[in-house]
Amino acid sequence: MGPDGAPGPAVPWRKVLWECQPFPDNYVDQRFLEELRRNEGIRQYRYWAVVKEAGFVAQQLSCVAVFITLWLYMEQGLLSPEMLLGTSLVSALLGYGLHQVLTSQVETCTEPRTHLADLQSATIFLSFTFGFSPVLKTLTESVSTDTVYAMSAVMLLAHLVSFPYAKPSPPGSLSLNAALFASVCLASRLPGALHTFAMLSCALLVFALWPCLLQRLRDNAPNQFTAVCVGVCVGGVGGLGSQSPGGAVLLALALGSVTLLCPLLLVRLQRHKDNIQGPWDEAEIHEDLSHFLH
Length: 294
Hints:
2 strands; disordered N terminus; two-stranded antiparallel sheet; single chain; mainly alpha
């Protein structure tokens, strides 16, 4: 039958473009919808698996809360820079040792970095940061405090939005630069140059090195990874609660939404997904065409 319902010619219709046929260009027969495919290749999510992956987002939000809490303690004189530096050094050494243990369990095609190269990188960063601390301390003297706080909030938000949660090792350049920019702004409002140096060293530990260790834990020790994420979230809420109970409540609500509510919405909305494929789609070439490039 033709498109108007009139009897068509005896010549059968063929789905080819290179042959002249007695049919209009937009003609299709009754077999057109036989190739219809629905939700082909759709990934089915499990709720607790999604909750576990959302833990990385929650712990990164908690890391920002921990960093802000440490800055508040230093600004109020409740935490000395020597104490923060010592704690950061011990944490860095323990984290580096754990990272080396986890790395040794994975076979890599690339040659691993040596301990000497890691020591040189850490020495160069700490030396430059310590030398430029007096400059960084006076960097925002001509800027109002409200502007500094607003810039820090925007940069920390940009850090959270642009953070590569799927593969955070190494952290993305935009995310890391935004976090360090916010750290410099906040550190410039502390009392002395040593405070600035301690705050920037802590920022490097929280925003640059910690995600690398967490990625190793997620790959090699998933059970421990979940426990660490829970611990970081509890520490973030508890630390912020010691300075701002209202902020701690908001953080707890945000963590609950990210880790429990959003995965539930994702799983529930999957059943309403209706993705169709058929003969109207573009052709996909599955043959290996690499031999044509030689």
